[in-house]
Design a protein that fits this description.
By secondary structure, the protein is α/β, with parallel strands linked by helices. Helices cover about 35% and strands about 15% of the residues. Helix 4 packs across helix 12.
Length: about 375
């Protein structure tokens, strides 16, 4: 059963018994009260957006970054598969209120608003190199102290990045809810999980509502800002079956030459096309099912790589059952710090951003990477 619940290594995990749980008391809704699913802007959580150009063999790639803070170590945040940097929005606002730090949340290759020449290449090696190139483009040869924090797929990429020494000023490593053993076990059933998700949504509000009610994201506030990074608007004709089923619109015929009324036909087609486009549909930005050939490379050998990284390490899990043999032994030997954050789904940093921020802030202060902000009581 637990393996079934952990199928969301690339997306998010289904709800636990008991239904919706909100992260943070201010988001809890009483019986009969209507929840607000309207989108929230990135600018309520991050200070700036930056598009960084990176040179590669085929030309230039552009990576979208969301940033906050002006002093202290850099927290480089890497999101999970299918998500975007916006999944770190609420967490960013919280962590910046606790410690002196700078946040750089990155849209990974083929995700969010990043634009690369080869979006099909989602190998661990390529994405780890992307991270290194972005850091070099941002800071040159003398980058500030950097702690990499990654969730799910992003956690795997964080480990590969650290292991390959793509970030020479690496301070520490934090991996959120991804463990090799559980990940490898779950991959066989991942396609079934992806097929069970809706293909389209009638609106962004509809997508946000689905993410909360399905348990994908259990914190309404986080869902309202992050789902915009998971889905995109698509205005298609109703000849697309997935769209026509949602809209109930008629099918537009492309040719009616046999009627011999070309002008009339063009006019009617234009009117129908305008009618269809009145309703904008949303679909997933990333077709995760097409990334299957890279899943093994993301996760196989991950535990050994994680343990081999010679920096202080923190592992945050939604359940202690995630630990595999290598990590269990490593944890007993004190090779990394671990904390279990119950009552949340796979999207730990979205469901309970305050708890993740507290754990990370305490870890960083303990290792003297930074200090608590004046007036903040830990």
């Amino acid at each position: 059963m637990e393996k079934q619940l952990h199928l969301n290594l690339l997306a998010s995990r289904p709800p636990m018994a008991g239904g919706f749980q909100s992260g943070g008391s201010k988001m809890k809704m009483g019986p009969g009260r209507k929840r607000d699913f309207t989108p929230l802007l990135w600018s309520q959580y991050f200070e700036t957006i930056e598009d960084v150009e990176v040179e590669n063999e085929n030309g230039k790639d552009i990576f979208r970054l969301y940033c906050s803070g002006s002093s202290g170590p850099v927290l480089l945040l890497l999101h999970g598969g299918g998500h975007s940097a916006l999944s770190w929005a609420v967490f960013t606002a919280v962590i910046c209120s606790r410690i002196n730090c700078r946040v750089v949340a990155m849209d990974l290759r083929a995700h969010g608003d990043t634009k690369v020449r080869n979006p099909e290449d989602l190998s661990a090696d390529t994405m780890a190199k992307d991270v290194g190139k972005v850091i070099e483009a941002l800071y040159g040869e003398n980058p500030p102290p950097i702690m990499i924090i990654g969730h799910s797929m992003g956690g795997a990429i964080a480990v590969h990045t650290a292991s390959a020494n793509h970030v020479p000023s690496l301070l520490g490593l934090c991996v959120i809810d991804v463990v090799e053993g559980t990940a490898m076990d779950a991959l066989n059933s991942m396609q079934n999980f992806l097929r069970s998700r809706p293909k389209t949504f009638k609106s962004l509000e509809n997508a946000i509502e689905w993410s909360v009610k399905s348990g994908q994201i259990r914190n309404i506030e986080s869902a309202r800002v992050s789902m915009g990074g998971q889905v995109k608007k698509c205005e298609e004709s109703a000849s697309n079956p997935s769209v026509s089923n949602s809209s109930g619109e008629g099918i537009i015929e492309e040719e009616e030459e046999e009627q011999g009324a070309e002008e009339s036909s063009k006019k009617r087609m234009k009117e129908e096309d305008q009618e269809v486009k009145k309703e904008s549909f949303y679909t997933w930005r990333v077709e995760l099912s097409k990334t299957e050939k890279y899943w093994d490379g993301w996760f196989r050998g991950l535990s050994a790589l994680f343990l081999s990284c010679h920096v202080p390490k923190l592992l945050l899990l939604a359940g202690v059952d995630r630990l595999d043999k290598d990590l269990t032994i490593g944890q007993m030997q004190g090779k990394f710090q671990m904390q279990v954050l119950p009552q949340c789904g796979h999207a730990v940093h979205e469901d309970v951003p305050e708890k993740v921020a507290d754990a990370l802030a305490t870890f960083m202060v303990r290792h003297k990477f930074t200090e608590f902000k004046e007036g903040f009581l830990c």
